[in-house]
Amino acid sequence: MPIIFKDVKYVYGAKTPFEYDALNGIDLTFEGHKLTAIVGKTGSGKSTLVQHINALLRPTSGEVLIDDFVNGPKNKIKAKEIKELRKKVGLVFQFPEYQLFQETVEKDVSFAPKNFGVPREEAIEKAHEALQRVGLDESFYSRSPFELSGGEKRKVAIAGILAAHPDVLILDEPTAGLDPAASKETMDLFKQIHSEGTDVFLVTHDMNLVARYADRVIVIDDGRIAFDGDPKALFNEDLEQYSLDNPDIYRFAKALTKRGLKLPTRDLRTVEDLAKAIKEAKHE
Amino acid sequence: MSSTVLGRYVPYQSFIHRMDSRAKLFAMICLMVTVFLKQVNWAMTFLVGGLFLVFIMMLLLLSHTKITTFLKSLRTLWFMAIFLLIIYILIPRTSDWIAFSIGTFNVYWDSILDAAKILVRLMSMIALMLVFSASTKPLEMSDAFEWYMSPLKYIGFPSHELAMILSIALRFIPTILEDVHRIMNAQASRGVDFKHGGVKAKVRSVISLIVPLFVSAFMRSEELADAMECRGYDPKGKRTKYRIAHFSWRDLVGILVAAAWLGLVIASSVTHFDLFAVFGLEVR
Ligand SMILES: Nc1ncnc2c1ncn2[C@@H]1O[C@H](COP(=O)(O)OP(=O)(O)OP(=O)(O)O)[C@@H](O)[C@H]1O
Ligand SMILES: [Mg+2]
């Protein structure tokens, strides 16, 4: 689904002493089917940016076009259109476990599809399917979401958005606080969902995730776009200027190059890629 | 949203902001008392009430509180006004000052004016509170509260504990509002519409907000209690203060102005002073 930001500015608390410019003129075009990562240091405006995509925030100036939906500063939007948009654009918040409220996991996950007009039976079915996908089996269906562990809560919350089958899936720091295995499982799930045709946006601090999963990376710095392009191109730049770290494999590769090993220049995504590259370099 | 919250502290350096919170509280209470003093007749009641409202508007300007903030807070008063009016009209009374009659039922001017009087009082109170809360940090408020309560310590009254509870409660108001905002956003992404919809939808949307809000509030309070205990907080301990408040000329001026107004109004009340009679006007 094409999404276009046209010179978007956003000010928190406009015309008060607390005024803060969170976005300072964002121009972006998302077309084609890519897994896009949005990175940047704390407070750079990533969450603010993505909340424009499902019209939780209206830009202070500029415009965001999401398919045929226009999110501008003042244009009238009908309640029905907003609902349509939010059905298409699923947003998983930073720490989504705080949104759980139903007495059972099953009910909580079927909440979104029900809101979007799916009949009850079908919504429950979708909930079960989504729970299976995030790795929670039948034993969880009738448990209270409040007696789960933090990671399980997170999975329930993610399932709660997946159950609505959005065309665009936005994930705000989905792996923060998860253990490495759970983190990899969820990321692989998002990759899978992406390959099934959903556009995925990933907001993160973790450059390893970017290296491994992203097709395109956008660096936000102080409410502006500092970099937009191929992850590989970004890792060859000096990342410290954005207060970001290089991914582990790139750091390792750079250290090897410094010590005289000539690595073939190619796309490194996983540890296996790096191992292969080292092997080739040794054989030469 | 959080920036337009009523009565939130707004950092400015006005005369009122720089008054000592204890002196300010004292002056506010003096002024508040005047609102409830009885004047000799209706004309005097509304003259004094009107003058007072003008005076508070000046205080609002002086403390950089926007008049629009005040007007916004009045919106909810409409309902109250109509309710009061109906109650007062229904209360039977004996008077010869009939406004109009519905059949054999007489509506008296006294009823209408009584309702109006209460409204003026409410408006004055709201405006005063607004001035106080917008110009006083929550911590200063609870300091003032504790200072006034401290004599009661000698008869075993837990004034420090109460002040601590008060300051924590005040401290957490913005945090909870932030929670409200965050949870509303998360639920809106799941298709909840907080603005439109019938009664059933409204109830559902409110539940989806309230439950997570309580859960997070309880979690927070538990965490806070643990954190305080871990750092050795003892409510019975003797403590020192980081900010030492000094009595300044501002406090003197503030108290004098408030006390002068209080004196004037008390004097006019007990002597049944009628300014209109002085000019030879016959009023009710
Ligand atoms: N409700 C709000 N009111 C006022 N300022 C806000 C609000 N929300 C965010 N901000 C400010 O806007 C800036 C951008 O916030 P945002 O949440 O978009 O950052 P972020 O890039 O998502 O950070 P993080 O990595 O910590 O999640 C921050 O400096 C923040 O202080
Ligand atoms: Mg964020």
Distance between the termini of chain A: 45 Å
In spatial order, strands of the major sheet of chain A run 6-7-8-3-9-10
Query: Can you tell me the CATH topology of the largest domain in chain A?
Result: Rossmann fold
Bound molecules: adenosine-5'-triphosphate, magnesium ion
- On the 0-100 scale, what is the average pLDDT of chain B? 85
Helix content, binned percent of chain B: 55-70%
Number of helices of chain A: 11
- Which stretches of chain B of 5+ consecutive residues score pLDDT under 50? none
What's the count of strands of chain B?
Answer: 2
What fraction of the residues of chain A are assigned to beta strands by DSSP?
15-25%
What quaternary form is this? heterodimer
Q: What sequence of helices (H) and strands (E) makes up the elements of chain B?
A: HHHHEEHHHHHH
Question: What is the end-to-end distance of chain B?
Answer: 46 Å
| Radius of gyration of chain B over all CA atoms, rounded | 24 Å
Q: How does this model look, in words?
A:
- The complex is a heterodimer of chains A (284) and B (284).
- Chain A contains eleven helices and ten strands.
- With 284 residues, chain A is of the alpha/beta class.
- Chain A folds into three domains: 162 residues, 3-Layer(aba) Sandwich (Rossmann fold); 67 residues; 38 residues, no CATH class.
- In chain A, the strands form two sheets. A six-stranded mixed beta sheet of chain A has the order 6-7-8-3-9-10. Chain A has a four-stranded antiparallel beta sheet with strand order 2-1-4-5, with no helix packed on it.
- In chain A, strand 9 and strand 10 form a beta hairpin.
- In chain A, helix 5 crosses helix 6.
- The radius of gyration of chain A is 20 Å and the shape is globular.
- The N and C termini of chain A lie far apart (45 Å).
- Chain B is mainly alpha-helical and 284 residues long.
- Chain B has two domains: 177 residues, no CATH class; 76 residues, no CATH class.
- Helix content of chain B is 65%, strand content 3%.
- The mean pLDDT of chain B is 85.
- Classes of the chains: A alpha/beta (284), B mainly alpha (284).
- The interface between A and B is medium-sized, with 29 and 26 residues.
- The complex binds adenosine-5'-triphosphate and magnesium ion.
